[in-house]
Write a structure and sequence with these properties.
14-stranded antiparallel beta barrel, 3 helices, elongated
Length: 474
């Protein structure tokens, strides 16, 4: 293509990025667990045990506890190079507040070997929004006379909220061994918008053939599912060992709605005629899944002032599956044949949403140093690898455009003990400069591919800071 750029304008506005959806360890729950790098499977002595290892509750002190934790502030900065196409970059900054954990442990005098717990967890809160416009002059269409004005619009928004509510119980089998079980109900709300509109207008006004392409996907769904966590805990003088096994989720209820538009005008693609495929489906059943996992943890008391922590968790893979799908043939104008529809959209249903997950192994390490009678320093590090197993959206089937970067977290803080326990600190998270693929390529429209440019190599970095506070009362 003979590019003769006379002007280019890139507008990026309303860009927001918060936590990641395709990371299992983006958030940790409870002030101690958060600041100890998530190394809480062997227990850290707070109410987060209902999530990490319900068996560890059995070794906690024999009076009731209630705690609340939050990311009081969470800031993130993302920088990409070529993220929207060659030489088209974007940056984004976001600040927000979100709750982490509300939990309690209850003991009855008549059952001294039992502990019972309840918890409400904000497991995942994610929001990504990007609006972009690019325009320039170039000889894009070989079949048309002269150059064309090209205008490309890209709108993307992805919003996820996962709330977990659960109960747990633990039983002290012996002086050194306990077993526990917890159950969580999961409510997931998901909204997605992906819209790309590309137009080429002839510069010579004597020619009025305007070529256009549009692909628009809008869907939302809610899903309720359940999950079980089994915990085992061994506690000795200096060494504590924990093991947990988390079941895959099982569906309880859920519904989805989706509207999708695919339109081609004055472009020689599949058929010589202009066409549009427009459809909407409501009330589809949803089947969102979380995989099973296995975790192990160790705590070791080095001396009276220093304790070290380690945890690791392996998440099983999930084969590609439909979160929801419609079996109804889409409406097309004029009506396309089955081979034409299959050529554009493949074997996947036109109205659908697909996910898949890679196996992931994360680990975290932490230390607690008691430098005064009632004050301790907490520090930690953990990995947070991306588990999304699907590529970017390429029109043949509906998958979510998603960040595919890994995260790393470093945390420091202070814990003040007493009848009331206050834990507070900072967590720094980062992605080193990472090779990735552009979200779109708005700078190099391709006449043979409905004005859609091929994805280009891109790089991305991100940095984030959380202020964490946790308060526990007896």
């Amino acid at each position: 293509m003979r590019n003769t750029f006379t002007f280019i304008l890139v507008l990026i506005f309303a860009s927001q990025i918060t936590a990641q959806d395709y990371h299992y360890w983006s958030e940790q729950y409870g002030g101690d667990a958060s600041l100890l790098g998530g190394a809480a499977i062997a227990g850290v002595g707070d109410n987060s045990a209902v999530y990490y290892n319900p068996a560890a509750m059995a070794f906690q002190s024999s009076f009731d506890k209630f705690s609340i934790s939050a990311n009081a502030y969470r800031m993130r900065y993302v920088k990409t190079e070529h993220g929207l196409g060659k030489d088209l970059h974007f940056d984004a900054f976001n600040i927000m507040v979100n709750p982490q954990l509300i939990a309690g442990i209850i003991q009855f005098e008549s059952a001294p070997k039992w502990r019972f717990s309840y918890a409400l967890i904000t497991k995942n809160m994610y929001h990504f929004k990007l609006n972009t416009q690019v325009s320039f002059v170039s000889d894009i269409l070989s079949s048309e006379h002269g150059e064309e004005y090209f205008i490309g619009n890209y709108e993307f928004e992805n919003s996820v909220l996962d709330q977990w509510a659960g109960i747990g119980a633990s039983f002290l089998v012996s002086e050194h061994f306990a077993i526990g079980l917890s159950h969580f109900g999961i409510y997931r709300s998901y909204k997605y918008h992906n819209n790309i509109e590309l137009s080429a207008f002839p510069v010579d006004t004597a020619y009025h053939h305007i070529s256009e392409f549009r692909s628009s996907i809008n869907f939302d769904y809610w899903n309720i599912s359940g999950i079980f966590k089994l915990g085992l805990s061994w506690n000795y003088d200096k060494l504590s060992i924990g093991f947990n096994a988390t079941s895959p989720t099982f569906r309880i209820a859920g519904k989805a709605n989706e509207q999708r538009i695919y339109k081609v005008i004055n472009l020689d693609f599949i058929t010589d005629e202009d066409f549009a495929v427009i459809d909407r489906e409501t009330g589809m059943e949803t089947h969102h899944q979380y995989p099973g996992s296995f975790g192990i943890g160790f705590n070791y008391i080095v001396n009276k002032k220093l304790t070290t922590y380690f945890s690791a968790e392996y998440f099983l893979p999930l084969e590609e599956y439909y979160v929801f799908s419609s079996k109804i043939k889409p409406s097309s104008y004029p009506e396309l044949t089955e081979p034409e529809i299959e050529h554009i959209f493949g074997d996947a249903p036109y109205i659908s949403f697909t996910e898949a997950s890679k196996q992931v192994f994360n680990f975290g390490v932490g230390l607690r140093w008691q430098f005064k009678d009632n004050l301790s320093f907490l520090g930690g590090f953990r990995t947070d690898f991306n588990h999304n197993a699907l590529g970017d959206y390429d029109y043949d089937k509906v998958v979510a455009e998603a960040i595919d970067w890994d995260l790393y977290h470093i945390s420091v803080g202070i814990r003040k003990t007493g009848k009331k326990i206050l834990t507070t600190g900072l967590e720094f998270m980062f992605t080193p400069k990472t090779n990735t693929r552009s979200f779109v390529n708005l700078g190099e429209p391709d006449e043979d591919n409905t004005l859609v440019g091929d994805h280009v190599d891109a790089t991305a970095q991100q940095f984030g800071l959380k202020f964490i506070v946790s308060y526990t009362i007896h």
